[in-house]
Amino acid sequence: ILSIAWSQDGTRLASASYDKTIRIWDLATGQCALILTGHSNSVNSIAWSQDGSRLASTSDDKTVRIWDPALGQCVSTLEGHSDSVRSITWSQDGTRLASASWDKAVRIWDPATGQCASVVYIRSPGFIEFDKVNLNQIHTTIGTFDIGFNRPIMSTQSFASLPRPYGYGLNDDYSWITYNGVNLLWLPVEY
Q1: What per-residue confidence (pLDDT) applies to 178?
Q2: What is the dihedral of CA 142, 19, 81, 157, to 10 degrees?
Q3: Cβ within 8 Å of residue 164, ≥6 positions away
């Protein structure tokens, strides 16, 4: 199992796995209620929409999928990453979906249309999560970024124009705690 996610109402638990499946568990019985298949490689991350009507998944197959758990079907496959997609998050209002990949891109999707609305290149995004209040901010492993939802989609990575993180985070190799992108506290390897 690579990822688990509780539904917002706490009645369902979804798990993602190396076996290319997503399983939805009935917590009352402890049994698997549904198996979702469609990814062609490991499923790395999953996230429920706020209303519980959709489940998003990411995979080593370079795709993001949006599922309707009530129907047990994939309703949309989002393509655009050029490497394994590692993390996924829904905005609080459900109007945006963000995915982070080893290709260093954080893609902001419109889940209603399946279109990529914006791309922000971040050196090591790792884990991502939309801010609960400001939908133009995204929290990552290395800090918080202003993603500027209306930022144009770039065809190539321009590392000279990478956004700077602010707040606390980790540096690219996770050996320093940073603040506003500046190394603050060294973490010995035994941590």
Answers
A1: 77
A2: 40
A3: 145, 180, 181
pLDDT of residue 149: 56
Amino acid of residue 86 = R
Note the pTM of the prediction, 2 decimals.
0.82
Q: Which two tokens stand for residue 107?
A: 């893609």
**Which segments of the chain have a pLDDT < 50?**
151-160
Task: Give the angle subtended at the CA of 65 by the CAs of 62 and 67, to the nearest 5°.
Answer: 165
Q: Do 134 and 150 touch, CB atoms closer than 8 A?
A: no
Cα distances (Å, whole numbers) of residue 137 to 65, 84, 96, 177, 187: 23, 23, 12, 20, 26
Query: Which of 107, 130, 111 is closest to 65 using CA atoms?
Result: 111
